[in-house]
Structures are given as structure tokens and as C-alpha cells.
Amino acid sequence: MEIALIIVLVVLVILAIVVIVQFNRLRTLAVACDEGLSQIDVQLQRRADLIPNLVETVKGYASHERKVFEDVTKARAAVGSAKTVNEIAAADNQLTAALRGLLAVAEAYPDLKASANFIQLQEELGATENRVAFARQYYNDQVRAINTALTTIPGNFVGPIAKVTEREFYEVEEVSDRATPEVKFG
Amino acid sequence: MSSPVRAASFALVQRSNRYKTFFLLLAMFLVLALLASWTVYYLGGSGAWIVPIAVLISVAITWGAWWNSDKFVLRMANAKIVTREQAPQLYNLVEELTIASGLPMPKIAVVEDSAPNAFATGRDPEHGVVAFTTGLLQKMDRDEIQGVAAHELAHIGNRDTLVMAVAATTAGIIAIMADVIFRATLFSGGRREGGHPFLALIGVVALVLAPLAAALLRASVSRKREWLADATAVAYTRNPQGLRRALETLRDDSTVVKQTSTAISHMWIESPLAGGLGQMFSTHPPIQERIDALRQMGG
């Protein structure tokens, strides 16, 4: 009789430990997902802050390439007004494409390409684009981890207790958003 | 052009090397436990003091170094910390990796040396340091440097200074104990009454072999952590080509880092000590195998 009691107690203790470990793990992942999202915002903001400087530098050498500047300004505004994860993702892709267009234009102006200011801005912009991409990657990694934990045992039992729910990945839904806009000269 | 990175493969390599590390360390502890048991049994009560004394000495030596590893190693390698202003591109590419990995920003240092190499140290991610030789920064492009930086940051993220400190401590305890016991049995022959001579023989053989086994296991742990660091680097960058091309540059470059102190030799991305002792004692896997593995991951 005593042995049975001890066994039941041991099982209960093990169960409690499992629940606590999973609970903490799920909560930690949820916080990491939140952090990942705000990190994306931080990097997008950083890129947005760099853009006026970049546009002005390019305008200094290629003032008549108006379409490209418009694309960039419009895309930048779109990122600012996006709300959901998917909206941000779509707007972000548009801005990336517009910036690529701007830099492609700059290729045609050797004076601009050689200026120290532009070279520095290129590195900063390239680095910022990378930072946005890595922030997305980090967020998606955390989402993958939390969704996997919530859909496997024992996380699926502890999930409702911890009030942790699945998150959506940072990805573009509309195929058309993936298309790079044409850059027209003249 | 390049095949897509197989997301599953680097994760598999990571998991497998974490398991291997665990079992290797377990094996080391078992060797230690067996040695300690034999000591207590064979040398009797007073001889048992060797065990805690060996532990204390080894811990004091290893863990002091681990705690101050950032300052200690920087001084040994003659590395200079650089700021964002002094090395903007390097700073940027390391910062990108901290975003991808979620690790805090480490200190970045540069070592004056024409041989391309890099290392990472620090007792935990909050005290992390990554260092690059001037040779590496000159000979590699941005993606390659980022691959190397990712490998080094992976060492920090995987707490390899801690893992290697544990391995070093255990190997150290075994070595100290074996040495002391060997001398003790040689001079005093402190055999217990009615002790079995066969047991004594096994013990002596084990005494000689134990430090050897410990050294082999320790080297094996180091190699597993290198595989893990390569796979984790790919997890951070999702760009196995960068690290693969960097390793190819290292493979084809014949210069060797001037800093060849054995104390920190295991931390460089490419071992500066020639493989004279043979593959089993090497702290790093063969570089061509590492390149092949990265190609497997889509690099």
C-alpha cells in the first residue's frame, strides 16, 4: 500500500516538473516572438531613416530620374502605415524592390558611384537590408519553434494552460508583391 | 544557380553533435569515476584525499581561466578591441549576426597577423569577444568574413568556452590523479591488506591509459563543437557558401598564425598547430571534411 502511494507521488512530481518546464518554455518563446516582431520594426525604421539621405545623394547626381524617387517615397510611406505582420511584409518587399531600382539607376552615373558619401551609404543600406532580412529570419525561427512546441506533445496540453497560441510567419501572401517593379529610364 | 539551403540538414548536424558532446563528457566522467573508485579501494582511506585535492587544483586552474577568458585570451593573442568607427563593415556584419541569433553584441578585436584566422572567447554570451587577424580581413570578402564571424559567434552562443572548460577540468583531474597515484604506488606500494595483485596490475595499466583516454576524449569533444559551430553558423546566416568559401581560402593559404600558444590553439577557426600528433588528438576536424559538409548543406 505504501509503495503504491510513493509511486503515485513520484509520478505526480514528474508530471508537475514536465508541466512547469513546458510552461516556461512556451512563455519564453512567446516573449521571443514579440521581441522578434519589434526587432523587425526597429530595423525597418532604421532603413526608413537612411532613405532620405540616400535619395538626396542620388538626386544630387541624377535629378531627372523622377519615377525611381517616387517609387521609393511611396513604398516608404506604405511601410509606415502597414499594421499586420503580412501588411508589413508586403510593404517591406515593395520598399526593398524600390530601393533596388534606385541603386540600379545609380549604376549609370560613375561620378555618383565614386563619391565617398554614396559608397558609405551603399554599405549602410546593404547592411540595413541585411538587418531587416535577419530580423525576419529570427522572428520566423521563433515562430517555427513556438508552433512546433504547441503542436507536439506535451506542449499541446500545456499551451492552453500557459495561454500561448500559434503565431503567423512573416511571409508575403500575394505573388504579385514578389515581382520587382520595372525601372524605366528617361 | 545555388541549391536551396536544406533547412533540416544544419539542424540535424547541430542536434547530433550536441548528443555526441553529452556522451563524450559522460564517458570522461565515467573514466574519472572508475579511477576515483579504484583509488579509494586500492589506496584505502588516506589515499582517497587525492580525489578532492586533484579536483580542487584542476578546478582552480581551469575555472579561473574560464571566468577571465575574455581578458586573458585577448592579452595572450595581442588583440586590440575595435570600435564601430574604426571598422564599420566588420561591425555591421557582426551586428547582423546578433540579430539573426538573438545573441548580445560581442566585443570585436583585431590581431595584427598576415595569416588569416579568427577566434571567439568569453565566459558567456554577455562577455563575448570575437577576434579576426588583419590577414583574414584582407584576404576574404564580406560573405566569407560573415561566415567566419557566424562560426565564432556560434561558439559563444553554444557556450563552448564552458563546455571545453568542463572537458579540460575533467581531463585535468584525471591527469593529476593518475600522476599522484602512480608515484604513490611506485614508492610506498600502499596496498591494502589482502589486496589482489591482479587488481593492482589493472590499476596501473588504467593509470597510464586514463590520461591518454582523457586527452583523446577531450580532443573529440573539441572536434564535435567545431562541427556544431559550422552548422550553427549556417543556421545564423542561411548562407553556407560564405563559410565554405572562407574555409577554402583558409585551406589554400599556407601561412600560419604567429600566435601558436597551445593554451588557446583550440579556439582559432583553423588550428595553428600542425597535425603532427595525428588526427585523434586534433582539436579541429580536417578542413576538407568541413568544406564537404558545408557543400552538403547547400553551400
Summarize the structure.
The complex is a heterodimer of chains A (186) and B (299). With 186 residues, chain A is mainly alpha-helical. Chain A contains 6 helices and no strands.
Features:
A: 186 residues; de novo design (two linked rop proteins); 6 helices; 79% helix; B: 299 residues; mainly alpha; four-stranded mixed β-sheet; 66% helix
Class from helix and strand fractions of chain B = mainly alpha
Q: How much helical structure, as a percent, in the residues of chain A?
A: over 70%
SS strand fraction of chain B: 5-15%
**Computed CA radius of gyration of chain A, to the nearest angstrom:** 24 Å
The CATH class of chain A, by name, is Mainly Alpha
Radius of gyration of chain B: 22 Å
Helical segment tally of chain B?
10
- Please give the alpha-carbon distance between the first and last residues of chain A: 92 Å
Shape of chain B: elongated
Overall pLDDT of chain A, averaged?
Answer: 82
The helix/strand series of chain A, from N terminus to C terminus, equals HHHHHH
Largest sheet of chain B: 4 strands, mixed
Largest sheet of chain A: none
Please indicate the count of domains of chain A.
1
Subunit arrangement of the protein? heterodimer
User: Which stretches of chain B are poorly predicted, pLDDT < 50 over at least 5 residues?
Assistant: none
